[in-house]
Amino acid sequence: MEIVKEFSRFAYEYDKYNVIQKEVAKRLASYVPKGFYNQILDLGSGDGAIYKTLSHNNIKFNKFIAFDFSKEMLEIHPNNSSIEKICRDFNQPSSFSMFKNDEFDLLISSSALQWSSDLLSLLNLIKPLSKSHYFSFFTANTFRTLHQIANLTSPIYTREDLIKILDKVFNYEMELVEYTLDFNSVHEMLKYIKKSGVSGGVQQLSYKQMKTLMLEYPLSYLEFEVMFVKVIEKK
Ligand SMILES: C[S@@+](CC[C@H](N)C(=O)[O-])C[C@H]1O[C@@H](n2cnc3c(N)ncnc32)[C@H](O)[C@@H]1O
Q1: What stretch of H or E contains 53?
Q2: For the segment 94-109, what is each residue's pLDDT rounded down to a tens digit?
Q3: For strand 170-182 and strand 106-110, is the pairing parallel, antiparallel, or unpaired?
Q4: Whose CA, among 10, 14, 28, 207, lies 20 to 30 Å from 92?
Q5: H or E element: which one contains 144?
Q6: Which atom of ligand 1 is nearest to the CA of 115?
């Protein structure tokens, strides 16, 4: 397993809360080889960034399952005769009982599985369902400096946790990408974090912590770290 590090810089545009997720979805989808996939499962499909990018990349399929526990997100996911929407929680093992082994040619999940409450069990559960797997996870280095200053622990998996878990289930290739997003003020950053749904912790900030952040945050940008995983074989 080789760690390839990259760095990308973006500017926050007013009211665009998913700038980084969209970039991440594009990058993850670009790893998927062109071709025909009978059935695709997208875990934590959100508003359809993966569906849109795969279609744009000329990936063909018979059926695309958009799986998300948010009805609101599924409502804004594109609709057509090849798309089936499933409103389920990936933290509930029973959510997968309807699927057979090897039912999918492609299982993909972008910017969602960092929220898994038991990632090892989930990966073991979804491993047999598909012939190929592609994942992207935000890591605990997301908002690293902000967490340090506010004395918060990231609620999501560290890079080391993710590697340890993935090593038990798959042989895989991975890439780490750091992104930054520029803002005009710390106030804007905090607003972005609350609305973006990327990584929390900030919701629990007291007034005092908030004030400390406003005064002491040394950067004009937020930091993100994303791990991209392409499974080579199952263990
Ligand atoms: C950051 S968004 C990413 C959406 C999309 N994959 C993308 O790349 O833009 C994470 C999505 O995962 C969904 N999600 C989070 N936890 C989930 C769970 N336990 N079960 C199912 N979906 C979940 C959220 O509702 C949200 O739509």
Answers
A1: helix 49-56
A2: 999 999 999 999 999 9
A3: unpaired
A4: 28
A5: helix 144-150
A6: 16
Average pLDDT of the chain to the nearest whole number: 92
Task: Please tell me the distance from the alpha carbon of residue 114 to that of residue 224, in angstroms, as a whole number.
Answer: 13
Structure tokens at 113: 């599985």
The pTM score is: 0.95
Q: Which residues line ligand 1 (CB under 6 A)?
A: 18, 21, 25, 44-46, 49-50, 68-70, 73, 89-91, 110-112, 115, 197
Distance from the alpha carbon of residue 146 to the mean position of ligand 1, in angstroms: 23
Burial class (CB in 10 A: 0-12, 13-18, 19+), 104: buried
Hey, which of 50, 111, 125, 136 would you mutate to test ligand 1's pocket, going by the most ligand atoms within 8 Å of its Cβ? 111
Q: How far is the CA of 168 from the centre of ligand 1 (A)?
A: 24
- Give the closest residue (by CA) to ligand 1 atom 12: 44
Domains in the chain, please, with CATH? Answer: 3-234 (3.40.50.150)
Query: 70-82, pLDDT tens digit by residue?
Result: 999 999 999 999 9
Q: Which atom of ligand 1 is nearest to the CA of 91?
A: 19
Instruction: List 85's β-bridge partners, or say none.
Output: 66
